[in-house]
Each structure stands twice: as structure tokens, then as C-alpha cells.
What we know:
- The protein is an alpha/beta fold.
- The protein is 21% helix and 13% strand.
- Helix 2 links the parallel strand 2 (30-34) and strand 3.
- Helix 1 (18-26) runs parallel beside helix 2 (48-61).
Amino acid sequence: MAKKRIGIHLSTSGGVFRAAERAHAIGANTFQIFSSSPRMWKAQQLEASHCEQMRRLRKEYDCFPLAIHKPKPPKPQPSSQQRFFKSNDYFEARYYASSTGRFLSPDWSAKVEPVPYAKLDNPQSLNLYAYLGNNPLGGVDSDHYRHG
């Protein structure tokens, strides 16, 4: 009966031969590595001495087969503007950040006012980022602009 092979994906940090040492240390008799760092666009050249040491250690530890796979290139990071539009909701009049529970733009007014829709007897009406006076369950905001 053939010997069962148990392995794991291992890091080659410090040299490709380190993966064989790590496999042996955890009791694996096969392992898998990336052909280059999955976080880099350009692969680094392997040192010949590290490759030879890897061959020797695999034979010594009976670590066969070795699976090597090529990583996918890293995805380009979106711009801050793309992240903004992807992570915030648009409610016809302004953007809402569900992560903070706040609108990201103040209420506006058709005429120029220092504080649109402010009611000086209600300090919460001065918070232009609140929705319905910071009580969204307390009323209906049919035009998306008014405070409660």
C-alpha cells in the first residue's frame, strides 16, 4: 500500500529551502509553494544554492511530491474616489455612510442661508448631517432635505 501524503501550503520566506524545513517540522511529507510572492508584480530570482538545498532536504525528509503554483498578480487598488462611491449609499440628494450611520453632505437650501432649515429653538436642527433631526423613525422626509 502506498504511503499517504499529508501536506500544506508553506512560506518560502528566508529561502525556498525553508519550506522543506517547515514541512518536516510540522510532520508533513509533501507541501505546496508559490513560485513567487503573491504580493509582488515581478518574481525574484531564486538562488541556485537554495534550490539545491531544497532538493537535498526533500530527499532527506521524503517530502514528495512538491506542488508549485504561480500566484495571480495583485489587483490594482481603487482610487479614493472609487472607494468612496463603492462604500457609500446614494439617496437621491446626498451620500450616506452606513459604516458610521451618518450622511456625508449637509442638507441644502434653494436660497442662500447660513444654516438651511435651522430652528434656533431646536439645537439638533443645526446639525446638517442629521436625518429628520437625528430621529429617522420619527417622521417622513418626502423631499430628502428637511429636518423634523
